[in-house]
Amino acid sequence: MQIPKNVECAPIASLIPAANNPRTHSKKQISQIAASIEEFGFTNPVLVDKDLSIIAGHGRVAAAKQLKLKKVPILRIEHMSETQRRAYIIADNQLALRAGWDEGILAIELQALGDLNFDLELTGFDMGDIDRIVGALGSDDAPDETDALEPATGPAITQPGDIWQIGPHRLICGDALDAATYDRLMDGAGADMVFTDPPYNVKIDGHVSGLGKNKHREFAMASGEMSAGEFEAFLRQAFTELARVSRPGAIQYICMDWRHTGEVIAAGQGIYTELKNICVWVKANGGMGIVSGTELEAANPGA
Fold first, then answer.
1. Which of 194, 215, 229, 248 could form a disulfide with 148 if both were Cys (CB 3.0 to 4.6 A apart)?
2. Is the dihedral of CA 63, 65, 70, 74 positive or negative?
3. What torsion do the CA atoms of 276, 282, 283, 285 make, to the nearest 10 degrees?
4. Domain of 54, in residue numbers
5. Backbone angles phi, psi at 65, to 5 degrees
6. pLDDT attached to residue 95
7. pLDDT tens sequence across 184-226
8. Is residue 221 exposed (0-12), middle (13-18) or buried (19+ Cβ within 10 Å)?
9. 129 and 91, same domain (yes or no)
């Protein structure tokens, strides 16, 4: 068995791309490789022959150029014949494609990294694939210690109708569909801006938490049980009250899961004068991990 020489550094300008390399790299993939190099370092040297012609590592070299690196680590492979070198350029890429994944273990690892706020796209998976992999691991497959937290016993500290005064801010415990809740909270004032994050009508289990030690219980309403028409009516009732206690020209920021964007737009028609824009929150990690719940919060306009 031939043992390659030690790793050394070489100027990128001195490396020669293989003229017969059949492997292609998209701009997106090059950017992903560059992000990986920034996060983990240049852990995989470029393989070159005695003339510094690249045998394996064209993508890494392109990523290094994108990062404006002057030198990269190389490993000289000088024992191959010309025929072996040409064959290895293909084999190095194709053999890696033959590997598979244990998606159960992969889902647990991705979930653990997500809980640590690690940028999961640095693993090479797109967020769509990550959502699919983690979402496919249902509660039946989760470890035994992932039992849902039991509610604390004893009387609740806050009861419906209670208002907490937090400096100039007011926080009410109440039903966001009930006009009386808004009247008590606003006390005759009008809101200049509303930011609301209503329930998404998406089940918590399989979408938000499921693999960590603690699991959030399903919401009391709009937790996946409503039809499109029912959810639209649910939102319309809340939007009506929000608009009623807002001043003319007030901006309303409404968060929603992408699955129900249509219901939000439909529910807002006739209540709001116009749809200003749709903003997409590009998260490093999709909706995974523990959530604390959804609250209706409103501040005194003078705050």
1. 215
2. positive
3. 130
4. 8-97
5. -65, -40
6. 82
7. 999 999 999 999 999 999 887 766 554 555 566 777 888 889 9
8. middle
9. no
